Amino acid sequence: MWAILTLLVENKPGILFKVTHLFRSRNFNIDSISVGVTDNPEYSRMTITTYGDEKQVEQIVKQLDKMIDTIEVKHLDEHKTVYRELSIFKIKLSNANDSMEVNKLANAYGGKIHDVRKDSIMVELTATPDQIRAFEELAKPFGIIEVARTGVAALQRSGA
Amino acid sequence: MNKMETMTGARALMVAMEKEGVKEVFGLPGGANLPMYDEFARCNIRHILVRHEQSAAHMADGFGRVSRKPGVCFATSGPGATNILTGIATAQADSSPMIAVTGQVPVAMIGKDAFQESDIIGMANPAVKYAFQPRSPDEIPMVVRKGFYIAETGRPGPVLIDIPKDVQQKEASMIFPDEFKIRGYHPWTTPDIANVERAIEMLLGAERPIILAGGGTIISSAFAELQSIAELLMIPVVTTFKGKGAFPENHPLSLGPIGMHGHAEANKMMTEADCVLAIGTRFSDRSVGTFEAFEKRLKIIHMDVDPAEIGKNQTTSVAVVGDVRASLRIMVKMLMQKAVKRTEENTWIKHVKETKEYWKENLKLHPGEMGAAKILRKLREVLPHKSIVTTEVGQHQMWASLFYDVIQPGTFFSSTGLGTMGWGFPAAIGAKVARPDVPVVDIAGDGSFSMTENSLATAVLEDIPVIVFLLNNFSLGMVAQWQRTFYNRRMIGVDQGKCPDYVKLAESYGAQGIRAQSMDELDKAIKTALKSDVATVIDIPIDPEEDVLPFVAPGTSLADMILPS
Fold first, then answer.
1. How far apart are the first and last CA of chain B?
2. How many domains does chain A have?
3. Shortest Cα distance from A154 to chain B (angstroms)?
4. Model pTM?
């Protein structure tokens, strides 16, 4: 099971270390992690995606909740959550047509074009991890030079 | 608003600790904690000097388990701090309240690989309940207040306070707070009444119910409540090893500890039960064997203060989260209201009692005069019931579990989770500091005792007369037993020889050393030690070939218990 966890934590040095250390010492895996300060500068929000069966995910949530520096920990239902990841692809351009083709592909996924060169182009894509993977598959034939991904940021929908 | 006072960070630490009621600190000075040590001259806290920082942590641990207030240990930076790490991890594994205060290099030197610098906050992270590193002296009063609160509330544990040297030295205006808030910490949950009700129904509906009392029962002193429930419902009681002595072991309903070296009758009845009331236990592999086999055909009611323990190792039918004493009190009250009181012995109880009788008669013991069972029963016979016993780690520890009956609840302590050799003796010293009015005995083996035997210096110089009851088989006996059992008698690295001579060792420290080679000598030795005002080592040579049995091999279930042949 793929799970999205959202954590409200104290915005203090060392908290990210403690959270990631917990995953390592309890034999859990981090799929992606993103951290940023909230509107209240005393808190940060971490979004962690992980894999595990139901029992493991429940344990992860409980162990994170037990940490004194976590204010709130939630396992988000992905159907009731807005979750996105930002990715940047640097794609190879081999012939004259490629630029247009990559442009079309990026448009289809709602991506933005940056830094167009003679032999490469950059695409910024904000989407769900599944969509990013799908885009990646379609971009592969052109040749992917480099990829950078932020990890997921997520918030539960109101009323959900 | 409290009055502001100007003082150094070191002074603030001592004042704050005095406000927490600290009377003793176990420790060893060094470069980076000297400003704190200098303050001992100006406060009413007694400093107890150790010869190795690990022992300071174990002493604080022993003190904490007995007094249920955090014991405090001091160490310097670098190696001083890393030396206490084993003691911190031991306290964490056994949920023992502790405050460890380490010196650190000055703030500006942190990260520069300075002399005696270690990133103790990073190293200790998974082994502490919480860690603080105040970077400014005025943080210290709040850090101490919160540190003690975190260490002793909810599921207790060790808290590390790492103070850079310049933070100890600098002056600041200090406020000593009464009130504070920790937003992410909610140590007590109110037990859910509906779940207690369901637990009662499940217990009443079970044919073969059993109570499994874990260490949490002792930590929350739920002795009277546990006994009331066992007696009202007439349910037999087994314990984990850490829960040993949560229930009087001479009680007709007591079966003793389950587990790898549990009592035969306890393991047998545990595997036959259909419903268990598990109180303050984490279902350690050493207690339950394989997780899958244990929970098969068993309804589990789990009471624990730590919600993360629910469902971690075992699937539960009913969970009651909260202080177990509070939960049990609610249960007793409900049983009283329902006027439930069983008086008739049912077939289950009869079967339990027959099984208990059978094993009392038929467990084969070492034939010699100085067999482990006879030695520990002799100790029990002579020691007053109020005496506190700690153990080291190894065969003697498991023999203590099997043959030393705890009559007065909450008087038996051991390193059960981490299994730290060398724990028992310094922990006994800490226990004696907490309870100078009762005899304190460390049931020891030679392998384990030799790891912290230099604490004899502390016991003698600081006038802390504990008794080391040393079952000496001149070897690392438990490892030897595994080599005999699982490695075809290839004995590697287990022979300790007759080295040292423990009587002479004790005497060289100014302690009393007595060798006991017969039951008669043993009887006299214990009585002499109990009257002595100096620490005593009773060296009891035993047969190095004696195994601890019964034995549930690792990775097997309680039903696969190996019995003496």
1. 71
2. 2
3. 21
4. 0.96
CA distance B453 to chain A (A): 32
d(CA A123, CA A137): 14
Per-residue confidence at B2, pLDDT binned at 50, 70, 90? low
- The CATH class given to the B365-548 domain equals alpha beta
d(C-alpha B459, C-alpha B465), whole Å: 6
pLDDT tens for each residue of B102-161: 999 999 999 999 999 999 999 999 999 999 999 999 999 999 999 999 999 999 999 999
What average pLDDT score do residues A88-110 get? Answer: 96
Tokens for A129? 């991890």
pLDDT at residue B528 tops 80? yes
| pLDDT tens per residue, range B327-386 | 999 999 999 998 888 888 899 999 999 999 999 999 999 999 999 999 999 999 999 999
3-state helix, strand and coil shares in percent for chain A, rounded to the nearest 5: 35, 40, 25
List of residues 6+ apart from B531 with CB closer than 8 A: none
Indicate which CATH number applies to the domain containing A45.
3.30.70.260
Contact A21 B125 (CB under 8 A): yes
Round to whole Å and give the CA distance between B235 and B226.
10
Residue B517 bears catalytic tag: no
- Using a CB–CB cutoff of 8 Å, tell me whether B312 touches chain A: yes
Residues β-bridged to residue B159: B99, B130
Cβ atoms of B413 and B444 within 8 Å: the answer is no
Number of CB pairs, chain A paired with chain B, less than 8 A apart: 37
Class of domain B193-361: alpha beta
Please answer yes or no on whether B184 and A10 come within 8 Å at the CB atom. Answer: yes
pLDDT at A160: 67
CATH homologous superfamily for B5-174? Thiamin diphosphate (ThDP)-binding fold, Pyr/PP domains (3.40.50.970)
Give the sign of the dihedral formed by CA B76, CA B78, CA B80, CA B81. Answer: positive
Closest CA to B393 of B340, B446, B353: B446
The region that residue B280 occupies, defined by phi over 0 for left and psi between -120 and 50 for alpha, beta otherwise, is left
pLDDT band at B189 (very low <50, low <70, confident <90, very high): confident
Tell me the per-residue pLDDT of B495-512, one tens digit each, with 9 for 90 and over: 999 999 999 999 999 999
Judge whether residue B1 has pLDDT over 60.
no
**Cα-only R_g, chain A:** 18
Query: Which tokens hold the place of B458?
Result: 């502390």
Give the domain CATH number at A96. 3.30.70.1150
Tell me which chain B residues have a C-beta less than 8 angstroms from the C-beta of A70.
184
CA quadruple B414, B417, B420, B423: dihedral sign:
negative
Answer yes or no: same fold for B5-174 and B193-361.
Answer: yes
B333 has catalytic annotation: no
Domain borders along chain B are 5-174, 193-361, 365-548
pLDDT band at B96 (very low <50, low <70, confident <90, very high): very high
Residue B116 catalytic? Answer: yes
Residue B107, classed as helix, strand or coil, is: helix
Predicted complex ipTM: 0.92
Supply the mean pLDDT for chain B. Answer: 97
CB-based contacts of B520: which residues, under 8 Å, 6+ apart? none
Closest alpha carbon to B148 in B18, B325, B328: B18
Residues of A in contact with B312 (CB under 8 A): 59, 62
Is B481 catalytic? The answer is no
- Partners of A55 on chain B (C-beta within 8 Å) are 311
Is there a catalytic annotation at residue B227?
Answer: no
Q: How far is B389 from chain A (nearest CA, A)?
A: 32
B497 touches chain A (CB under 8 A): no
**What's the pLDDT at B4?**
87
pLDDT above 60 for A159: yes
Residues 6+ apart with CB under 8 A from B41: none
